[in-house]
């Protein structure tokens, strides 16, 4: 939609203008400040840079952006924060995003992304927070997500994910919040979940999970919220847990 003549703009700025071409609707704050005649994009709306004028952060939440996230995003090698939540961005999540190897925060929530989570997400070894909730994502949650060692926040709720919760979910031992609710997940809860010893919030409600709660849940001494309702689960709620923090409507509790 947008065409530009670029002269002295650095490579990250050129990349941002390439991303802009995939957007069919953007607010005036972007069209007025994303100026191709600048030497760098460091003063552009929603953009922050490091001292070398590399783009470190893009935060364009709630900007009424419509369009796609282009594959050019993978050219931003120093990108640490990408927040595009609460827009109207559609299409697949580009696999090239996996090239942003120093990314720490990825928030694409409340958009219209479709397709599957790219396997290349495994390359995001610095990622601390992954927010993809309230999109139209499908397929199984890939095991590669749970090979990202330092994840603290994982919000995949309210999509159309199916299949089982990957058995290696316990690999993300630093996780504090794990929200998988509002999907079509089936099978049992993996016992490896007990390895997530720092977990404070576990939301599994509104799925198609079956079987007995794994005994390894007893290891989650920091758990503040457990939501397992609207499944076909049964089992024992550990006696040490405060009942106020366990949401088990429709859940069979063993004596």
From TrEMBL:
Its EC number is 2.7.11.1. It holds the Pfam family LRR_8. Coiled coil: none annotated. One of its GO terms (molecular function) is protein serine/threonine kinase activity. It is a single-pass type I membrane protein. It is found in: Cell membrane. One of its GO terms (cellular component) is plasma membrane. The keyword Protease does not apply. Gene3D superfamilies: Ribonuclease Inhibitor (3.80.10.10). It comes from the Eukaryota. Keywords: ATP-binding, Cell membrane, Glycoprotein, Kinase, Leucine-rich repeat, Membrane, Nucleotide-binding, Phosphoprotein, Receptor, Repeat, Serine/threonine-protein kinase, Signal, Transferase, Transmembrane, Transmembrane helix. Residues 9-50 form the Leucine-rich repeat-containing N-terminal plant-type domain. This is non-specific serine/threonine protein kinase. It comes from Quercus suber (Cork oak).
């Amino acid at each position: 939609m947008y065409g530009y003549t670029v002269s002295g703009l650095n490579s990250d700025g050129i990349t941002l203008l390439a991303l802009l071409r995939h957007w069919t609707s953007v607010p005036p704050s972007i069209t007025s400040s994303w100026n191709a005649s600048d030497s760098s994009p460091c003063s552009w709306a929603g953009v922050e840079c490091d001292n070398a004028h590399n783009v470190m952060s893009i935060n364009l939440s709630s900007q009424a952006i419509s369009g796609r996230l282009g594959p050019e995003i993978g050219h931003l090698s120093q990108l640490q924060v990408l927040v595009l939540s609460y827009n109207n961005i559609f299409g697949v999540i580009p696999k090239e995003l996996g090239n942003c190897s120093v990314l720490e925060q990825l928030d694409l929530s409340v958009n219209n992304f479709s397709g599957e989570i790219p396997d290349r997400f495994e390359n995001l070894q610095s990622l601390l927070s992954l927010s993809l909730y309230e999109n139209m994502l499908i397929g199984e949650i890939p095991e590669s997500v749970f090979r990202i060692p330092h994840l603290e926040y994982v919000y995949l709720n309210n999509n159309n994910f199916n299949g089982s919760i990957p058995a290696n979910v316990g690999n993300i031992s630093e996780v504090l919040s794990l929200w998988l609710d509002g999907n079509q997940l089936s099978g049992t809860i993996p016992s490896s979940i007990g390895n997530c010893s720092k977990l404070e919030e576990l939301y599994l409600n509104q799925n198609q999970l079956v079987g007995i709660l794994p005994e390894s849940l007893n290891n989650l001494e920091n758990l503040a919220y457990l939501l397992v309702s609207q499944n076909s689960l049964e089992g024992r709620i550990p006696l040490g847990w405060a009942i106020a923090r366990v949401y088990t409507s429709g859940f069979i509790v063993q004596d």
